[in-house]
Amino acid sequence: MVPLHSYKVVSALQAAWGAAEVQTRPILLRVEGKAGHGAGKPTSKILDEYAEVYAFIAKETGASWS
Hints:
Blueprint: H1 4-17, H2 43-61
């Protein structure tokens, strides 16, 4: 199943914020196939999701760890 509503929301955000000078960062849309709605989601998928979100935040804020 294609998550059309998610794509439409991100498209609307990009259109609304695209001309705003204060919005200089990208919008993250993560689509995970066959993952369900949370309950019963495999631990590996949960870890992948958090890793991707934290990596995105780190990249966009210039964070670094030592």
